[in-house]
Design goal:
Helices cover about 35% and strands about 25% of the residues. The chain is α+β, with helices and mostly antiparallel strands.
Length: about 400
């Protein structure tokens, strides 16, 4: 019998329980399957604004306080996607929880007395358990409100509730490409959104910004997002996808509303990036950790303002390159003196974080923090970022 066999039995038990497990019973089920090992855990989920780690309540024990990401050992484990041992008392392991490569939170693991926290079988068992919990959090969340509520520090308005249900996970990776996104503010949103989809060797990318604020802007963006997905899933090419969104907005409203956006397809075999820019800030191309420049081609009017056929621009990118898409809420965020955050500051900070070797989602989280710090208060406009890294090394950094 291998040293990890008891952990495998616990995971098999958890999987068997999961088929008819209510979302609110996750902590109870995890406690039950780990009890024979003498192990206890607390599950923490990252809050929507990615500033803290919030505990899931457990049966029969008080919930601990939420943990800050930026000033705690637990936060370091989360941001670096690395397991860390805390000396206590009592000693514990902090284990990242991911679903695939999407960061969801942490496990705080207390091992039986006398067990070495460096023991490979313990660490492997914890890693496998955290992975299973990550999958269960994602798969069970749609069936109840508890897991959503646990990640919120305050109520969400209607526009934010609608938008977050439409967006894909914040991070996705294969062995050769990583896509990560960030959208702020989280609880009252305007018309920003992002999308991506991997189909064979091609990945579709989009970042959108609907005119206005609140629910009207989100409704316009939602129609554009749904139209592009419908066209894409009907095997439409990039031109057909953008035209579908344009037609959907013009067909639904006559009041001059529109959506700006960048829509792109990246061929991962040849490195060919094809893109259309509908009145949106141009993406930045970074190579070797340095900004090469902005992609200025493929220009057309915003969606909803013209049915003219657009030109599709293309550029050849290289392995290791990064593409940073953003909305104007990032570069136009102003401090108390009226100074804008600016494209130069965005490029400089992106270069610094990339050169430090941070995982892709952590690069974006820190960029978002920098925008908020510059603003010195709540953002008045959405600030959305989408970072694509065509790099096996970047993908490997997302594995705990």
């Amino acid at each position: 019998m291998t040293a990890t066999a008891p952990w495998h039995r616990a995971l098999a038990d958890l999987l068997a329980r999961s088929h008819r497990m209510p979302p609110d019973d996750l902590t109870t089920a995890v406690d039950a399957v780990l009890a024979p090992l003498g192990v206890t855990v607390t599950i923490y989920l990252v809050d929507v604004e990615q500033g803290g780690l919030r505990p899931l309540p457990g049966a029969g024990r008080p919930a601990p306080e939420a943990l800050p990401i930026d000033t705690s050992l637990a936060g370091r484990a989360f941001t670096q996607l690395e397991m860390h041992a805390g000396q206590g008392p009592p000693p514990r392991l902090w284990v990242p929880v991911v679903d695939g490569t999407d960061r969801l939170g942490l496990l705080e693991v207390f091992a039986p007395a006398g067990v070495d926290l460096a023991d490979p079988s313990l660490r492997e068992g914890c890693r496998l358990t955290a992975g299973m919990i990550g999958h269960l959090v994602t798969s069970k969340a749609p069936y109840g409100d508890g897991l959503h509520r646990a990640r919120r520090s305050r109520p969400m308005d209607v526009s934010a509730e609608l938008l977050w249900q439409l967006l894909p996970p914040l991070t996705f990776a294969t062995g050769e490409v990583t896509v990560s996104a960030l959208l702020e503010p989280c609880y009252e949103v305007g018309g920003d959104a992002f999308d991506y989809a991997l189909n064979g060797s091609s990945i579709a990318l989009a970042i959108l910004d609907g005119v206005g604020h609140g629910l009207p802007a989100v409704l316009t963006t939602s129609v554009a997002l749904a139209a592009t997905r419908a066209a894409r899933r009907a095997s439409g090419d990039l031109t057909a996808t953008v035209e579908a969104a344009d037609a959907a907005i013009r067909g639904e409203w006559r009041d001059g509303r529109f959506v700006t956006g960048v829509f792109a397809e990246l061929d991962l075999r040849e490195g060919l990036l094809r893109y259309v820019n509908a009145g949106h800030p141009p993406p930045l191309l970074l190579r070797g950790g340095r900004t090469v420049g902005a992609l200025e081609g493929g220009r057309r009017l915003p969606l909803g303002l013209s049915g003219d056929r657009q030109e599709v621009a293309q550029v050849r990118i290289e392995p290791g390159d990064r593409l940073l898409l953003h909305t104007d809420g990032v570069t136009e965020a102003r401090d108390a003196t009226g100074e804008m955050f600016g494209l130069g500051r965005l490029a400089d900070l992106a270069e610094r974080h990339i050169l430090s070797g941070l995982p892709t989602p952590e690069t974006l989280r820190r960029l978002g923090r920098a925008v908020g710090d510059h603003r010195g208060g709540p953002l008045r406009d959405d600030a959305t970022l989408l970072l694509v890294e065509w790099s096996p090394e970047a993908a490997a950094r997302l594995e705990p």
